[in-house]
């Protein structure tokens, strides 16, 4: 069991984490099919939109979906993930706004981990009137800066696995981010490990196409948002950068940099957690988000 994670937290994480199709709603938008969970108590409080990390899906937010009963909570699957459409070159921040429009949500607090955190920051930059606040976990912006040899080696392994069509090697490289560079698999709660791995396998199964030569074809990459670091001073929304204390060095540095560069930024470090603090320390993560919501929404 992860140090600092109570038996109750572990059990709750296991129970709620792999909820999926029975909770999903589906919408056909202009150029995509989007699957999402929508908890709407009808209170009129500022909605919270949860944006998942790369290669996984909305189920990573299992410990958060019912943790904020006073407000509407929406957790979509991004293109190329979960039960949504295949990946295209569309900008993920534009997809967020398209979903907000379809759900008639004028403004929301956007919370994301990893890729989802970058998307949340992008949305605040590109659509500032739609972001009432941003929670970005384990990331700075959608233009990550990696210098640590540990991370660079993993990305090199990842690229080699993609080129060779080696799903097992791809998964091994991806899953190394769960414990991070300072721990091993044995330090991660087994339920957290298994759930992240199950989501990633689902992504590979549903969203990776095998070409005629038998080699998997990498999904299309979303179009990026440019000059994000240079533009952070323009972010009008309050930003909470959250990072696990044992996440990779680059992820921690990027979170620190994000909090320092935006006009209304703060940093929170979650002990005994790496790249997925919302899963490893759900009660602590939820408390941080709840305190942030009380200030901004």
From TrEMBL:
<dbReference type="InterPro" id="IPR029058">
    <property type="entry name" value="AB_hydrolase_fold"/>
</dbReference>
<dbReference type="GO" id="GO:0016787">
    <property type="term" value="F:hydrolase activity"/>
</dbReference>
<dbReference type="InterPro" id="IPR000639">
    <property type="entry name" value="Epox_hydrolase-like"/>
</dbReference>
<dbReference type="InterPro" id="IPR050228">
    <property type="entry name" value="Carboxylesterase_BioH"/>
</dbReference>
<keyword id="KW-0378">Hydrolase</keyword>
<protein>
    <submittedName>
        <fullName>Alpha/beta fold hydrolase</fullName>
    </submittedName>
</protein>
<dbReference type="InterPro" id="IPR000073">
    <property type="entry name" value="AB_hydrolase_1"/>
</dbReference>
<feature type="domain" description="AB hydrolase-1">
    <location>
        <begin position="47"/>
        <end position="282"/>
    </location>
</feature>
<dbReference type="Pfam" id="PF00561">
    <property type="entry name" value="Abhydrolase_1"/>
</dbReference>
């Amino acid at each position: 069991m992860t140090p600092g994670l109570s038996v109750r937290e572990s059990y709750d994480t296991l129970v709620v984490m792999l909820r999926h199709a029975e909770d999903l709603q589906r919408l056909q938008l202009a150029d995509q099919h989007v699957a999402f969970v929508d908890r709407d108590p009808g209170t009129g409080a500022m909605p919270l939109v949860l944006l998942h990390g790369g290669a996984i899906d909305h189920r990573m937010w299992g410990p958060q979906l019912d943790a904020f009963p006073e407000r509407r909570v929406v957790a979509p699957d991004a293109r190329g993930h979960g039960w949504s459409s295949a990946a295209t070159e569309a900008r993920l921040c534009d997809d967020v706004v398209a979903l907000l429009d379809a759900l008639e949500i004028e403004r929301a607090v956007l919370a994301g981990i990893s890729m989802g955190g970058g998307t949340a920051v992008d949305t605040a930059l590109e659509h500032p009137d739609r972001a009432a606040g941003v929670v970005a976990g384990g990331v700075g912006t959608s233009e990550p800066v990696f210098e640590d040899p540990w991370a660079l080696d993993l990305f090199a392994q990842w690229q080699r696995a993609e080129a060779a069509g080696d799903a097992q090697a791809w998964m091994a490289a991806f899953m190394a981010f769960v414990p991070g560079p300072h721990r091993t698999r044995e330090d991660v709660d087994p339920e957290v490990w298994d759930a992240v791995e199950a989501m990633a396998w689902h992504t590979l199964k549903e969203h990776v196409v095998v070409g005629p030569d038998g080699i998997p074809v990498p999904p299309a990459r979303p179009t990026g948002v440019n000059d994000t670091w240079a533009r952070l001073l323009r972010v009008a929304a309050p930003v909470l950068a959250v990072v696990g204390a044992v996440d990779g060095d680059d992820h921690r540095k990027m979170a620190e940099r994000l909090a320092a560069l935006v006009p209304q930024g703060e940093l929170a470090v979650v002990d005994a957690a790496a790249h997925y603090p919302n899963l490893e320390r759900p009660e602590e993560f939820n408390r941080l988000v709840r305190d942030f919501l009380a200030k901004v929404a």
